[in-house]
Specification:
mainly alpha, about 160 residues, single chain, about 40% helix
Length: about 160
């Protein structure tokens, strides 16, 4: 977080009036001793104003709020990783899901996830034993006449 120019000037003026050491001034004004030291060094070099911002790369490769709004409108139920992939295809630069999450929050966009639904009863709920993608059928591992809980199967029909 950038500190105000006014605070810098008050610290420098207090130092010029010899109101205390760097440590005392840092405690008095609520800044770190290193900050006071840096400000005093810059003042000795003739720079009392802060350095201008150095800029940097755009976090989303130049994509703005409009692009994010379009992504969320197209697929409101996508995951952050899916949004990152879609944005990479559009802009040509990858970004992490964390960066994308912060950008969505700054833009005031919320992802609308589908409500949770009960699991399908038509498919198996357990992963088959053995290596993933193996050819063994897990159904054949349950002995005939027993249920999956290993109790005798019900004879009622």
């Amino acid at each position: 977080m950038a500190l105000s120019v006014d605070l810098r000037e008050r610290v420098l003026a207090a130092h010029e009036r010899r109101e205390g050491s760097q440590r005392v001034l840092a405690e008095r004004f609520g800044v770190a001793v290193g900050t006071v030291n840096g400000w005093l060094r810059q003042a000795r070099e003739g720079r009392r104003a802060p350095l201008r911002g150095r800029g940097g790369r755009a976090a989303l490769g130049g994509a703005g709020a409009e692009e994010l709004t379009a992504l969320v409108a197209e697929s409101p139920d996508a995951t952050l990783a899916e949004y990152a992939e879609m944005l990479a295809r559009r802009v040509g630069r990858r970004c992490s899901p964390a960066v994308l999450c912060r950008a969505l929050r700054r833009a005031g966009l919320r992802r609308q996830k589908k409500p949770c639904t009960r699991a399908s009863r038509s498919g198996p709920m357990l992963r088959p034993p053995g290596p993933l993608g193996g050819q063994r059928s897990w159904i054949g591992l349950i002995p005939t006449g027993l249920s999956s809980s290993m109790r005798a199967a019900s004879t009622r029909a």
